[in-house]
Amino acid sequence: MASSLVTPPRPDRPARPNLAFRRLRGQRSPAEFAALVRRAAREIGERVSCDARYVGRVEAGEIRCPNYAYERVFLHMFPGRTLTDLGFAPRSSVRGRGARAPEDAPDSHPAFRERTTGDVPDAGETRGAYEPYDTQDPYDTHHNDEESDVLRRAFMTGGGATVAAASLGPLGLTLDASAADRPVRRAGTGEASALEEAVRRIRLLDDRHGADGLYRRAATPLRAAYALLDAGAVRQATADRLHSGAGELAISVGWLAHDSGRFDDARSHYAEALATARMTGDQALEAHAFCNTAFLARDAGRPREAVRAAQAAQRVAGPLGSARLMSLLALREAGGWAGLADRTGCAQALARAHALYERDPSDADPEWMSFYGEAELEGLEAQCWSTLGDWPRAARHARRAARLQDPHFTRNIALYTAELADDLARGGRPDEAAAAGMRVLDLLDQVQSSRIRTMLAGTARVLLPHRRASGVSEFLERHASAPRKA
């Protein structure tokens, strides 16, 4: 990070805490809020070096007025508010002269914007950054000391640890906003149990209904989970449960983002879970985070990253003793090889996945793998062959997946059937594809998944030239009239 240029506080003007800014941060940790600031900056073409330390300095009142780059970012994040609304002092009181109108600010002119992304710092400002973000290799399984130090401060020893009241609501943990600035007792077994229950409920609702309607609601218990980590725990065993639960919740929320097409959000949540796992040496959580990262990379068109993440997961998961977990991780690797058009690598990984699956389930199998049965194995293999362009083989596995799936997993039945429809359409069997597509449409009243809707839209495009085939016109008309995601 770029070093901060700080003017020593004036004795006649002691720093006052910026309580308005602190309230806007809410239940996010300083590190989480800093990540949101950097993301907002990228949205408007700015580059700012915002980290947990900068957020802490703002809240402590050390930064009385931000530079113009930060000003633009904050006003973008909180539209309709002024700097004063955000708790900052008027620029004129910091500069000692009249504040310039926005159009007179030096970096508001195109020529200046092309030259730099930050300003010469005023008194009490932090300079903008010129460094890139997200440059660390997430597949290096050794600890990064700087990253770990930042995360420890952000999650475990944040100044004045506070946490909102946690209770079981529709999704488990809910927040009481009025308690945001009120110190509470350290977390105990009740809070740890509530966190674990929140994870179970989110997974159950996703199995039945898909991700689209859950993602934004699930962000609230996730913020509460990290607030619990900020507050600390009475016993080390409880602290371990809280870290594991928060990491699993981050993965669950990441999956909801993933399945609803918010890939950048998903990547961020999975990275958060991975960092939490590494801080505590939780190999099971680390393997889970890598597993989902591999799946996301495949869907996001980064197959080589998918292979590397899946292989990293297998290295971490090996000592855990779960053959079923290793089977799933082999399937994640197979998906990456398929994306690289490496048929041999894909087939070898699939063979390992089947051989490992044939071993009996064990007590070492993670709780989150309840979805992984023969139907999921068949469905993931279907996706591999589909990626490789072997449509008949993909259709056979997709049909078997839909037939084997437990009725409880409504979302997966819709997913496998959508995969089947697409494979049949691309394999030259439009009438059967249309029939499968109609079955998916029947399920969309219960399932909200952008992934499934996107797959079905692709199938409809493939079937357009086959309108005269039996059932195709009816499917296309019904698909076109189906309500779209709001």
Can you give a write-up of this model?
The protein has 486 residues and is mostly helical. It folds into four domains: 19-115, no CATH class; 159-278, no CATH class; 282-372, Serine Threonine Protein Phosphatase 5, Tetratricopeptide repeat, CATH 1.25.40.10; 395-486. The chain has helices spanning 19-25, 30-43, 52-60, 68-77, 91-95, 110-115, 145-155, 189-209, 215-231, 236-259, 263-280, 283-299, 303-317, 323-339, 343-357, 374-387, 391-404, 410-426, 430-443, 450-463, 472-481; strands at 167-169, 172-174. The longest helix is centred in the middle third of the chain and has 24 residues, at 236-259. It is globular.
Write the layout of secondary structure elements.
Blueprint: H1 19-25, H2 30-43, H3 52-60, H4 68-77, H5 91-95, H6 110-115, H7 145-155, E1 167-169, E2 172-174, H8 189-209, H9 215-231, H10 236-259, H11 263-280, H12 283-299, H13 303-317, H14 323-339, H15 343-357, H16 374-387, H17 391-404, H18 410-426, H19 430-443, H20 450-463, H21 472-481
Antiparallel strand pairs: 1-2
Helix content: 55-70%
Mean pLDDT, to the nearest integer, reads 76
**What kind of sheet is the major sheet?**
2 strands, antiparallel
Q: Give the tally of structural domains.
A: 4
| Fraction in beta strands | under 5%
Strand ordering within the main sheet: 1-2
